[in-house]
Amino acid sequence: MTEALEAIADRFHPREQITAIRSLGSGNVNETFLVTHKGSGKTESFVMQRLNTAVFERPELVMRNLQALGEHIDRRLATPPPELKGRRWELPRIVPCRREDAAWVEHNGDFWRSITFIDDATTSDEIKDCNHANELGYGLGMFHTLIHDLAIHQLADTLENFHVTPEYLNRYDIVLKTPAVLDSAEQAACAFIDKRRDGVDVLEAALARGELQHRPIHGDPKINNVMIDETSGQAVGLIDLDTVKPGLIHYDIGDCIRSCCNPAGEEASDLASVGFDLNLCEAVLDGYLNVARGFLSSWDLHYLPDCIRLIPLELGLRFLTDHLEGNVYFKTERPGHNLQRAAVQFKLVKDIENQMPALQRLIQRLSDRPVN
């Protein structure tokens, strides 16, 4: 424990009761720590985070969204929906400061906050099997079921144009205009994008036509943001809620499937190992639709194949742009890290494209099942 971290943690819990502070998770944006403390005869923990204010320019709006989300889910869980089937479901809660009427701490220009820790549950960076995939789909489906009726005017848009693929393409084009000599790997990545410019607006165009609608979304429901109970193996909640905002649920579905259905993971170093596993995709969608099918429209279902292809393309585009821009958004560990990440996503896109007819048939079959 460093003196600075202890001082910040003391704002949320008495320093003399804190026994450990350690890094937690593998996020690319915020710094996260698990604070362990003793009190009332037992050991407990909470999560302490330094928000990246270069990404979240108005962190107070992030906190306001968390408050609105928590209050809404409390009301929904007061009469648990039948889809919960008696299992537990938890939401990280804001831990207020001890001596101030505030939900966060500003220390040396940094924005710190604390939230509750979901005990006896873990996350994973890699998919284990189809049962794991099914629970990940269930977790996202339950989250959407609980929040789909939260009025979007109660949520601030904390990340304007987040997941709006045409805007990422516009940013990429601006960055690409900066004079630079591209190596062969960079040229190949740029050529991959150029061949797929048509159709990057597929979801936004559907929104403009009224076929899709904005709803509350998680914004980043990748595999390691779904908590799995250590005993039962069941999904019990979603974490990393800073990106909750109004958006298209297709962003969430596509991102969940993107992170679950490539067993090699987004940090794969061997591109030959990267691929789209259709069986895992079926397991995720089965878990999701078993819970969320009731509020989905026919148009929502129609655009599922498009979002499954689009979101990895979008993430690859973001990784590539960040690489060309000097790695200003995503944390990197080595030169060329974001370029390699982009290559992984592009390989995944290519494999999805090759399996698109089978993917469409799969979604049609699952969509045609009676609603529970």
General description of the model:
There is one protein chain. With 372 residues, this protein is of the alpha+beta class. It folds into two domains: 3-115, Phosphorylase Kinase, domain 1 (2-Layer Sandwich); 122-367, Aminoglycoside phosphotransferase (APH), C-terminal lobe (Aminoglycoside 3'-phosphotransferase, Chain: A, domain 2, Alpha-Beta Complex), CATH 3.90.1200. Helix content is 43%, strand content 14%. The chain has twelve helices and ten strands. The protein has helices at residues 3-10, 59-78, 130-147, 165-176, 184-194, 202-208, 249-260, 278-292, 298-302, 304-325, 337-354, 356-367, and strands at residues 18-23, 31-39, 42-51, 104-107, 110-116, 121-122, 215-217, 226-229, 235-238, 245-247. A hairpin with a 2-residue loop joins strand 4 (104-107) and strand 5 (110-116).
Strand content bin: 5-15%
Instruction: Report how far the terminal alpha carbons are from each other.
Output: 50 Å
The name CATH uses for the topology of the largest domain is Aminoglycoside 3'-phosphotransferase, Chain: A, domain 2
Low-confidence stretches: none
